[in-house]
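look at this record:
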Amino acid sequence: MSRQDVNRSGEMEIFVRAVELGGFTAAAHACHMTPSAVSKLVARLETRLGTRLVNRSTRKLQLTPEGCAFYERSISILADIAEAERYASAGEQAAGPIRINTSASFGNHVLAPLVPAFLTLHPAVTLDITHTDKVIDLVEDRADVAIRAGPLKSSSLIARKLGATRKIIVASPTYLQEHGTPKSATDLKDHRRIGLSYARSIAGWPILHEGQVVELLVTPAIQVGDGEAMRHLAISGAGLARLTSFTVRADMEAGRLIPVLEDANPGDIEEFYAVYIGQGGPLPARVRALLDFLAEHVRL
């Protein structure tokens, strides 16, 4: 029998039960085995280890010094296995680190305000949050959950919908005072536009023009790496930006940004998902707790 074929933890458990219960017969009854099966198991264990564990000359089970040492180490190892199973069990209390990858906009405006309540509910959890608008590989980046907009591109991932939001073209009052307010799609060519510096599935801005939704190709005057940078530039008066409504809601209420061309807004919806790896058995309790919490509390 190869080493890989041996159920070493199972042997340890039966051996420990025999010692604690004082004999093979009692251990056999507790483990739903026959006394001869327990005796043969211990004999095989001794053969594999190359040492005698139990003296069989007395009616009472008597351990050799090697048997005592093996018994003590077996107790420790079985306790470690039980602890590992408790920690990893999907039914246990959420505990341990969760690595979250999210866009800067979602992270700042949606996720951050929810973090205190989540940690109050799950005090044994710690969070490691990374902001990037680029699509990542969850395995390569060791992320438990990624929060992203749009459809999945990999069948090995599972997505849980968190909500949907519309996009709005905005500008600061200062910019509009200096450059005027665009009245139609054709006016946009005369304005500075702020865009993203990496490839997107949609290259332009969808907009209503003469009753049709057209894709207005954007040649940005300024390119940045994430939506939060776009927002700050728009607030500073650098140009027009097309951003998710939850990103600019507070800014519009405070008058820092003003919606532009709302009559030409096609009302297209961008859906947000919590994405995670769905293969390999039940989700850890900590990850499942986060997904359930986000699904219940995210409001876009």
Observations:
- The mean pLDDT is 85.
